[in-house]
Amino acid sequence: METTEKPVQNNKKKRSQSDKIGRLKYNQQLLKQTLAEVEEVKLMLRTIFAGLKDSFNFEQSLIERAACKDEIDREILQLLFEAGSLGLLPKDLAVKLERFKITRHQVSRRIQRMNRRLVKEFGEQIAEQRGWHWAITSFAVDAWSKTKDEMASHVGSTYL
Fold first, then answer.
1. The CATH number of 58-159 is which of 2.20.25, 3.90.930, 1.10.10, 3.90.660?
2. If you count Cβ atoms within 10 Å of the first and of the last residue's Cβ in the chain, which end, N or C, has fewer?
């Protein structure tokens, strides 16, 4: 008596999730999950950074990297720093940035964008409005002055 033993369970290979819903949709789901996790990590870093903000030394290069997107933004900050606490009108900034063909409205929008970026990263603004004028904040002045002091001390030490 010959009996062919057949397994009770079917050992068929199960379909993967990408086969069930489609490879493109599956990859999109993975991408969304990954981006959500990255945002959570960024939020944790911002929280940790906010706690350590008092002991952290901000440098001009760090602030520029976080706030500025291009050369025009850097020029705006430099002009605001040179203007001091009185600040400058957007139309005066636009005149000084004539080679970039930028209007006074674009100057204000760029400063607001830089402020948003810096608030998102460090919780501080880089420029504030004083009446109609834009002036650099004390936070940014501290960073710029530290950089200038360091450069002066490096120059002095190389010649001694």
1. 1.10.10
2. N
